[in-house]
Amino acid sequence: MTPASKVDRKKVWVSWSTGKDSAYALHLLKKDPSFEVGALFTTVTESFARVSMHSTREALLYLQADRLGLPVEVVRIPDQCENEDYELQMTRLIAKANSQGVDLMAFGDLFLEDIRQYREKMLFGTGIEPIFPLWRRPTDFLAKEMIASGIRAYLTCIDPRKLDRSFVGREFNSALLGDLPRDVDPCGENGEFHTFVSDSPDFNSAIRVQKGDVIERDGFVFADIVKVE
User: Fold this and answer.
1) Can you give the pLDDT at residue 2?
2) What CATH number did the domain enclosing 114 receive?
3) How far apart are CA 159 and CA 168, in angstroms?
4) Does any domain span residue 5?
């Protein structure tokens, strides 16, 4: 097969949660000569200056983007964001992407049909197509693939109704997979946990981090992941 020429490559922006799924989706896209990754985009809860749900400090988001050599488009949303607020900000982002010739937006979703359908609805008729590089991959194998690829991540948020709070702040590695209860998805796709990636095969160097304070808010347990100076 002849590699795609520069002209033939599809320009893609990647939904970047700061966690392992988006990092692995990006990794697969960067390996495929059909795609040209142009930027990341991320929602940040404005009042906390943290990436929504993952609770990653905004400063760490920029460090990730720097390690990847990619610009990041930040979509700022209020705390307790209503759908109308989110959709307004996303409409502005999509318009900007269109103005820059973006063909595709990539998402790291695995198997939640309602989330996929919502993303497809948001992009319908915009000229930008949603793609899902990890869709329907068996999560037990996928979790091991991520770790084997060189992705290093830490659990920043857990749902204590589904996973013991002792897991928050732990590294996402083989030992953690072995300790997960049988009814917890290995990739946390049912909302059991969210992660922050401190290293990946696409970073030019790792980000040294450590676990900081642990707090409980809005029914979730968060570990503050902080950069080691």
Assistant:
1) 47
2) 3.40.50.620
3) 9
4) no
**Integer angstrom CA distances of residue 107 from 21, 55, 144, 165:** 9, 19, 20, 28
Nearest to 222 by CA among 178, 129, 157: 157
State the total domains in the chain: 1
User: What are the structure tokens assigned to 209, written together?
Assistant: 């981090």
Q: Which residue has the tokens 């197509």?
A: 129
pLDDT band for 8, please (50, 70, 90 cuts).
confident
- Distance, CA of 69 to CA of 65 (rounded, Å): 6
Neighbouring CB atoms inside 10 A of 88's CB total 13
* Burial (Cβ within 10 Å: 0-12, 13-18, ≥19) of residue 86: middle
Q: Is residue 3 part of a domain?
A: no
Quick check: is 29 in a domain? yes
CA angle 206, 212, 216 (to 5 degrees): 125
In a domain, 4, yes or no: no
Residue 212 burial by Cβ neighbours in a 10 Å radius (0-12, 13-18, 19+): middle
Q: Is the pLDDT of residue 1 over 50?
A: no
- Dihedral over alpha carbons 109, 110, 115, 120 (to 10 degrees): 70
Q: Residue 188's domain spans which residues?
A: 10-227
Residue 50 φ/ψ, nearest 5 degrees: -135, 150
pTM of the predicted model, to two decimals?
Answer: 0.93
